[in-house]
Design brief:
alpha/beta, Nucleotidyltransferase, domain 5, five-stranded mixed beta sheet, 7 helices, 5 strands, 44% helix, elongated
């Protein structure tokens, strides 16, 4: 019996092996959870926050060690936005952004929510999407940089309107605790620039109503003064 060895090229990478990795983006560090398609062992590595260069270097080392032909990396959409996606794509790594609300989780019993468990769930969703199972999770459509910049003014305005509404509600509740009641328009216009313009034009700036007990307090003070002055 003879054995023949066939060599096709000089590359040692296995084209049918895919290295999938999920990145849990945290404020204290990033947790990278990875696994090759021909292995069952999961590897976890923690790197610094926003250290995308270390992330790319780590995926490169793992790809070489596991002889993977492809690398697929994903993370949940959140505070960081889409710049990690663009950094991974520029490095030649297949990247995807997952919708957090679309990831299927076990609804039976209570599930401990930690970076380790979330990393495994995201990794399994990425592996399922790579195999063609679209029901495992949903990819987020990544906008271009120009589209993202165009959305920012609207988001900033919506945030400021919510903050203004919350401040007006807080002022109204604080005044209500001392018996002062007013409309929201009076609170909003008391310190606005339009109120200043009306005052400069000769109109009176709207004032907050007085305390309901001020008249009773003044009458009590006058009665005490008259009682003290009487012989």
């Amino acid at each position: 019996m003879t054995t023949e060895a066939v060599f096709a090229g000089t590359s040692t990478l296995k084209e049918d092996v895919t290295l999938c990795a999920s990145v849990e983006l945290g404020s204290t560090g990033w947790l990278v959870t990875s696994r090759a398609s021909d292995q069952e062992k999961i590897q976890r590595t923690r790197i610094g926050t926003n250290d995308w260069q270390s992330l790319i270097a780590l995926l490169g080392r793992q790809r070489k060690a596991r002889q993977a032909g492809r690398v697929v990396c994903g993370y949940e959409a959140g505070r960081e936005g889409f710049w990690p996606y663009r950094a991974l794509r520029e490095a030649g790594i297949e990247a995807c952004v997952l919708d957090p609300a679309s990831i299927a989780v076990n609804q039976r019993g209570r599930r401990t929510k930690t970076d380790r468990t979330d990393g495994i769930v995201e990794l399994e969703a990425i592996e399922a999407l790579d195999l063609g199972r679209r029901t495992a999770a949903r990819r987020v459509v990544v906008p271009t940089e120009d589209q993202e910049d165009a959305r920012q003014p609207g988001r900033t305005r919506s945030r400021l309107v919510k903050d203004r509404t919350a401040v007006i509600a807080y002022i109204k509740s604080a005044l209500a605790r001392v018996g002062v009641f007013c409309r929201a328009s009076e609170v909003a216009s008391a310190g606005s620039s339009r109120a200043g313009k009306r005052r400069r034009r000769g109109r009176r700036r709207p004032t907050l109503p007085s305390e309901p007990w001020r008249g009773w307090r003044n009458s009590c003070t006058a009665s005490r003064a008259s009682a003290g002055s009487s012989p």
